[in-house]
Specification:
There is one protein chain. Helix content is 33%, strand content 16%. The chain has 443 residues and is α+β, with helices and mostly antiparallel strands. The chain folds into 2 domains: 280 residues, FAD/NAD(P)-binding domain, CATH 3.50.50; 149 residues, Beta Barrel (Elongation Factor Tu (Ef-tu), domain 3). β3 and β4 form a beta hairpin. α2 packs parallel to α11. The C terminus is likely disordered.
Length: 443
């Protein structure tokens, strides 16, 4: 989807585009057709609420920008409550027809397995990046800059953590500054709470591996439920060890176990649960993690998971124009940049296509505003995220700069989210207008 959107946006700007698609000549274990925009998982683009949901806002922004993926989705919408679900076959056929019929686009069914130093390129591969191209990217970026599997710990909105229970402290107060010494949020457990947590963890429903995934990956990063299966005390001597920490709410009582959360973005709005990568099903994760003291009312920006993926450590590799720092003639877009989901991937294709076209045509493109959904994602993957813990991320309001003067917490959430979307829409319209797009045509 990201490649199709990037090609379409560049072509609409008047640039001649060659879209390289290796399917159906080279197949993957997940795809079944040679159509562009084939949906290999769900047929849903998730919430379509552009006032109270960040992905719905992303829908709105893409539609305003004349996005191929979003317009094709609305053309084949199916009843799904407040979600945007589509007829997946008709959707893919529409995307394919629009690309192949475009006078400025030529589709070449071949596998690209090198990073050229000439011309303008956008690589919009995703979880199923071919082995040859994966090796080429790894050779250019370094072996430690390209991951082939997600090992995702759950990410929690900071405002939803109960700080009357939890406290901020790095283990043994490590760090030269107060910020470093309080870099972690700690949730204490008694022995009974820990034993109940282990019982729930062992009994929880887990997902199975898909074809093409391998368990060998876990040698370096075990799911918490696998650690628990190796012994009830394993987690207490691993990611949940209570040493080097003192609970200021009850300094005389030493916790039996401690769950730590580490800041996940520079805004300090998101925290990941350290060492809690998991194969539990989403419903089970919410139930089990709500047992952690301090997280009983936690809201999750994303839940944990372990599955095949291929993505860059984008904060260290890409500039704010999605260009590879070592080869600026190359841009990346889509899931390989470290965004998660159909919509987010296509959105990165939309901005990458426009950026590439502007550069080719010698036009100045204004920076994508950070207060838009597109801009929040770009900022996150190109520098806003912590590079050491970078993992793929869905769009969510935790990536947005806070609004002053609005109530925090759950009770102020509706007003706050409306504030985010109103601010984003105004900024997005100004950005499109600066590029000469007639917004009335997108209505």
């Amino acid at each position: 989807m990201a490649g199709s959107e990037a090609a379409f946006q560049a072509a609409e700007a008047g640039v001649q585009v060659v879209l390289h698609e290796m399917r159906p000549e080279v197949k993957t274990f997940a795809h079944h057709t040679g159509n562009l925009g084939e949906m290999v998982c769900s047929n849903s683009f998730r919430s379509d609420d552009d006032e109270q949901n960040a992905v719905g806002l992303l829908h709105w922004e893409m539609k305003q920008a004349g996005g191929l993926i979003m317009n094709s989705a609305y053309a084949h919408r199916l009843p799904a409550g407040g979600a945007l679900a589509v007829d997946r076959e008709a959707f893919a056929e529409t995307v394919t027809a629009a690309i192949t019929a475009h006078p400025n686009i030529r589709v070449s069914h071949d596998e690209v397995s090198e990073l050229s130093g000439e011309g303008h390129w956008i690589f919009a591969t995703g979880p199923l990046t071919s082995e040859g191209l994966g090796r080429a990217i790894q050779a250019e970026t370094g072996t430690d800059r390209l991951a082939f599997f997600d090992a995702i710990a759950p990410i929690v909105y900071a405002e939803s953590i109960d700080m009357d229970v939890a406290w901020r402290q790095s283990r043994y107060d490590k760090g030269e500054t107060e910020e470093e010494q309080k870099a972690y949020i700690n949730c204490p457990m008694t022995k009974d709470q820990y034993e109940a947590f282990i019982d729930a963890l062992l009994a929880a429903d887990k997902t199975e591996f898909h074809e093409g995934e391998t368990a060998g990956y876990f040698d370096g990063c075990l799911p918490i439920e696998v650690m628990a299966e190796r012994g009830r005390e394993t987690l207490r001597h691993g990611p949940m060890k209570p040493v080097g920490l003192t609970n200021p709410h009850d300094p005389e009582t030493k916790p039996y176990a401690v769950v730590q959360l580490r800041r996940d973005n520079e805004l300090g709005t998101l925290y990941n649960i350290v060492g809690f990568q998991t194969k539990m099903k989403y419903g089970a994760q919410k139930a089990v993690f709500s047992m952690i003291p301090g997280l009983h009312d936690a809201s999750f920006a994303r839940l944990g998971g372990i599955h095949r993926n291929t993505f860059l450590n984008s904060p260290t590799l890409l500039d704010d124009r999605m260009r590879l720092r070592s080869k600026p003639n190359i841009r990346f877009a889509g899931q390989v940049t470290g965004v998660e989901g159909y919509v987010e991937s296509a959105a990165m294709g939309l901005v990458a296509g426009r950026m590439a076209a502007a550069e080719i045509l010698g036009r100045t493109m204004p920076t994508v505003p950070q207060d838009t959904a597109h801009g929040a994602l770009i900022h996150h993957i190109t520098g806003g995220a912590e590079a050491k813990t970078f993992q793929p991320m869905n769009v969510n309001f935790g990536l947005f700069r806070p609004l002053e003067g609005l109530r925090g917490g759950r009770k102020g959430r509706r007003e706050r989210y409306k504030g985010y979307t109103d601010r984003a829409k105004e900024a997005w319209q100004e950005w499109l207008t600066a590029q000469g797009l007639d917004l009335r045509a997108a209505e």
